[in-house]
Write a structure and sequence with these properties.
The protein is an alpha+beta fold. The protein has five helices and seven strands; from the N terminus they run βααβββαβαβαβ. The protein has helices at 35-49, 58-65, 119-133, 148-156, 169-172; strands spanning 23-26, 78-84, 87-96, 102-110, 138-144, 160-161, 174-180. Helix 1 (35-49) runs antiparallel to helix 2 (58-65). The two termini are 18 Å apart.
């Protein structure tokens, strides 16, 4: 589990009026509290990509087996949940990318019934703040070509696409983005 405080991280977006009791807390993909988030993400991938050839089992592989849970834990990663009344309604994580100064955001997801409330913005801001605290200077992420809402969100948050937006996005399949982070001194 993270040594980060169990509240909203400095630099992260504040809760909107009426949701002041929302809490962003450190967690792990192994935490039973994270299970609804991961299951929701699995369902989302299946709904969006399940009709593609060779997709059988791909969503489960991506969500549960592609990366070890330890990759999303300190000292090189983090996994955060946004709780409302004790229920996980959004979350995400990051792990060290191939470049040791780059954090790779993964598993960013918001429960269907809680979308359009700015929760993904708050999760991304909290992940960026935690990555900065751990000494990362750049963030990298990918989203799928059938997730235009996510691509639009990352554009709005200042991420630069590492692909040609005029290209055949289906042929690219994964759409990579990057963003520089403010430099800080790594915590001792």
């Amino acid at each position: 589990m993270s040594t980060a405080p169990a509240t909203l991280h400095a630099g992260a977006a504040a809760a909107p009026p009426g949701f002041e009791q929302d809490r962003i807390v450190p967690s792990s993909p192994r935490d039973p509290l994270a299970r609804p988030l991961l299951e929701g993400l699995l369902g989302e991938y299946d709904r969006r990509y399940g009709d593609l050839p060779d997709h059988a089992g791909a969503a489960e592989q991506e969500v549960y087996h592609r990366y070890p849970a330890e990759a999303f834990e300190p000292p090189h990663g983090a996994f955060l949940l946004l709780l409302r009344d004790g229920e996980p309604i959004a979350g995400g994580g990051f792990m060290r990318h191939a470049d040791p100064l780059t954090a790779e955001l993964k598993r960013i997801w918001t429960a269907d019934r809680h979308r359009r409330q700015g929760l993904a913005i708050r999760i991304v801001a909290a992940l960026e703040a935690e990555a900065t605290r751990l000494g990362y200077t750049r963030v990298f992420l990918t989203t799928g070509f059938r997730q235009p809402e996510a691509a639009a969100l990352y554009h709005r948050l200042g991420y630069s696409p590492l692909y040609d937006p005029q290209a055949d996005l289906a042929a690219l399949f994964k759409l990579p983005f990057e963003k520089g982070l403010a430099k800080t001194v790594r915590d001792a």
